[in-house]
Design goal:
There is one protein chain. By secondary structure, the chain is α/β, with parallel strands linked by helices. It is built from 5 helices and 8 strands; from the N terminus they run αααββαββββββα. Strands 1, 2, 5, 6, 7 and 8 form a 6-stranded mixed sheet that branches. Helix 4 packs across helix 5. The longest helix is centred in the N-terminal third of the chain and has 26 residues. The relative contact order is 0.14.
Amino acid sequence: MAFPHALPNDRSSITEPRASASGMRLFLVMPLLIAIMFPAAAQQQEEPIHPPATAPQMPLDSNLLQVKRIFVAQLTGGLQADALRDLIIASLNQASIGGTKLFILTENEERADAILKGAADDHTFEDTFDSQDSLSFHGNASAYGGSSSSSSSSRSSRSSGALGSGIGENDSEHIKERKHEAYAAVRLCNRDGDVIWSTTQESLGAKFRGASADVAAKVARQLTEDVERARRPPPPPVPKPVQSAPLSPVAR
């Protein structure tokens, strides 16, 4: 009589699949348990990291209003840059609004609120003008006539005429004029090195002053106008139109 094969005594082959299945369930349930037990920690991990807030920068107009003492640095350019620097210093020193002086010009860079830098030059050139005018008129007219007859008494007549005229004129002009052309491209920088104002001015000369003096006056006038504009209060904001809510079907 044949007996069936005996079951193996080692139970590891049976319990091992059960252990792996229970471990898998524990692995899937573990994140849910952590989220329930520690909600604050999970929320903190999900929140995005924002960069640190930076201090708001002051508008350039406000920086310009804080300038009271100006140092004019050496200007680059041609041979006339130093002369233009002196003219700009003199013009800025006379800048005023309502009789009140705007700036104090200093030769000590350490005490200045802002530094004026840039380039300037005044060069000469020759302007040539050529013109030529010509006028000519010529006229000529002539007439001739004659008659003859032969008979017992002979008669003959003859007439002739001539007329001539002529006008001629030629005028040429050659002019050479020596002129000056000046320019200045300057910028105003605060103590941090930020450019808070800049301008570029050019001139061929004014009626009562030369090109360099006119450029310096334009630089000072432009800075005065910009300071005066910065002092004006900003315009009030425009109110937005109020939009009425649509009526409900019941109200209609």
